[in-house]
Design a protein that fits this description.
Layout (H helix, E strand, L loop, with lengths): L1 H9 L5 H40 L8 H15 L9 E6 L2 E13 L5 E13 L1
Antiparallel strand pairs: 1-2, 2-3
Helix pairs in contact: 2-3
Length: 127
């Protein structure tokens, strides 16, 4: 009984090493969120640009050039800088124009490691 009481008194919480591990894991989680959130926020902007493109009644859906010019202006206004012309594909079939954006974004993480995400968004313009 005496050994049980004496060992119980020695256990008063986390050691210094335990606190360093907990703080390190928490910092890693915070850094991960701060690196990933801008990628998904930019994808949200791309989705809203595509939706506004679909709702634009002044846009000629038969002209790829007109679609790209309108799309690039909207992306510039939204500051979605990852999407380039080579990421955009357009196809027309049965009076429907499909605009698809497939792009990949990367950000450095630690040293030689990086975090990356690949997104694919599309919209159908029916006119």
């Amino acid at each position: 009984m005496k050994t049980l009481m004496s060992s119980k008194n020695k256990q008063k919480g986390l050691s210094s090493f335990g606190w360093i591990v907990i703080v390190g894991l928490f910092a890693l989680l915070i850094i991960s969120v701060l690196k990933v959130f801008p990628m998904y926020y930019e994808n949200y902007k791309v989705k809203s640009v595509l939706e506004s493109l679909r709702l634009d009644s002044d846009l000629d859906p038969k002209s790829k050039r007109a679609i790209w010019e309108s799309l690039s202006k909207r992306l510039y206004i939204q500051e979605a800088q990852t999407v380039q012309r080579e990421h955009v594909s357009m196809s027309r079939k049965n009076d429907k124009t499909t605009v698809t954006i497939i792009y990949e974004t990367r950000d450095s993480y630690f040293g030689n490691l990086f975090i990356g995400a690949k997104f694919s968004e599309s919209v159908v313009i029916e006119r």
